Amino acid sequence: MRTECNGERMGFQGAFGRVVQADFKGGHMSSEGGALLLREVDLRVDVTRRFAECFRDHRDADLIEHTVLELVRQRAYGLALGYEDLNDHDDLARDPLLAMALGKRDPEGTDRKRERDRGRPLASSKTLNRLELTPEEIDAGNRYWKIVHDAKEIEALLVTFYLESQATPPAEVILDFDATDDPLHGEQEGRFFHGYYGQYCYLPLYVFAGEHLLVAKLRTSNRDAADGSTEVLAELVERMRERWPDTRIVVRADSGFARDELMGWCEEHGVYYVLGLARNVRLSKKIGVELALAKERCDKTGVASRVFAHFHYRTRKSWRRVRRVIAKAEYLAKGPNPRFIVTNLPEEYAAPRILYEKIYCHRGEMENRIKEQQLDLFADRTSTSKMRSNQLRLWFSSLACVLVSALRRVALPATRMAKATCGSIRLRLLKIGARIKMSVRRFVVHLAGACPYQDVFVQAWHALRAYPLRC
């Protein structure tokens, strides 16, 4: 991309008798060659356009240089490409390739209204900041804040993306619930100290179905991890049963969600659950025989031993009824390691060992998805002063997650990157050097010939071209 420099030629240490020099006179170049793939999958799945429809734009149409759709795409593509902060977009403002990917008619910014903006086709950090910080009650009469998002529409849209991704009704859907910490380092609204995490943080609630993100709900941390999960589940079940009335729905979560309210709702509405159960003295006594057997085997073989059992159990105060518990009586070289889960799945669904090892333990994949969003897509950049704007930032990260997940699902299943993380996809397929040639009729991008993942890029392009175009 262009840079504001003096064109000085820089000399570096020579190599094999050759002088090594460099300058910034490469012309129209970009490090974001993979934005072409992002744009293609976006148009195929129709993600950002529908997300932009969740905003109400009260600006004067004659004064607009950046539409809501362009702003939404700039923010989402930026996160997918590794630019987590708004001020990063001041450095990106001159990138013609990214401008083309956003849908800019003038990717060089030559027709900007103000002279100081010429050559900068993209929105500045200040413009994007106004997009994120607009209060809910603002209307066209406000001078500075004029673009308002509808939270309910965005929440519903994330579920819609998942429903549309399934070509046929699945026989079973497993909904993974989890809460995690989002550390805070300022005086943000809703800031509380969490004793378990030992820091001030938010406590967002996530729901995934496989790799599909359905819910990313920002919450204060002065609450139980399962707080509000019943209401969230009720909305998800209603949407899914409208479309898939015969699909079996299973809720999976750790012991922080083994609450009587959630389990009772599931039992009353025909929803199954597999939840971790915190161990206690009464539960440990229930598996005394199995634990002794596991110890005997471990002592004989010198390796960890597991014995599984199931029984019916009820807490003394918190549960309204008796429920089925699966126990893993495990003995390790360092001592006993019993674990428990509670479920309402029928016994014929799976044997206790299978239910624990193949069903419950696979929830660890959801934890990987949360780490992927927080570390690779910057879901923890909730540094504004208001909860509402921080929630919108979390949703922008979620939008980037939907885009990259769609790229992985649609374009990469037949490649060696079929299981790659968002960070690996960015490094190997999105951050590619490119030279851009523009004319009245063409926008030609020459990608770096030394790119080691050319084969994957081409395979992804073929897969995307074969996918139906939605917009």
Write the layout of secondary structure elements.
Blueprint: E1 10-15, E2 18-22, E3 29-30, H1 35-45, H2 48-52, E4 55-57, H3 68-80, H4 88-92, H5 96-102, H6 125-133, E5 147-149, H7 151-165, E6 172-179, E7 182-183, E8 192-194, E9 199-202, E10 205-209, E11 212-217, H8 229-243, E12 248-253, H9 260-268, E13 272-277, H10 281-286, H11 288-301, E14 305-313, E15 323-332, E16 335-336, E17 339-343, H12 352-360, H13 364-376, H14 387-411, H15 422-430, E18 434-438, E19 443-447, H16 454-466
Parallel strand pairs: 6-12, 12-13
Antiparallel strand pairs: 1-2, 3-18, 4-5, 6-10, 7-9, 8-9, 10-11, 13-17, 14-15, 15-16, 15-17, 18-19
Helix pairs in contact: 1-5, 1-14, 1-16, 3-14, 7-14
Supply the key terms.
alpha+beta; Transposase Inhibitor Protein From Tn5, Chain A, domain 1; globular; single chain; 471 residues; 3-stranded antiparallel β-sheet; 9-stranded mixed β-sheet
Tell how many strands the DSSP assignment holds: 19
The portion of residues assigned to helices is 25-40%
Summarize the main sheet: 9 strands, mixed
The average pLDDT score comes to 93
CATH superfamily of the largest domain: Transposase Inhibitor Protein From Tn5, Chain A, domain 1
* Shape estimate: globular
Q: Would you tell me which CATH topology of the largest domain applies? A: Transposase Inhibitor Protein From Tn5, Chain A, domain 1
Structural class: alpha+beta
| CATH architect. name of the largest domain | Alpha-Beta Complex
Our count of helices gives: 16
Low-confidence stretches: none
Q: How many structural domains does the protein architecture include?
A: 2
Tell me the name of the CATH class of the largest domain: Alpha Beta
Intertermini distance: 29 Å
Strand portion: 15-25%
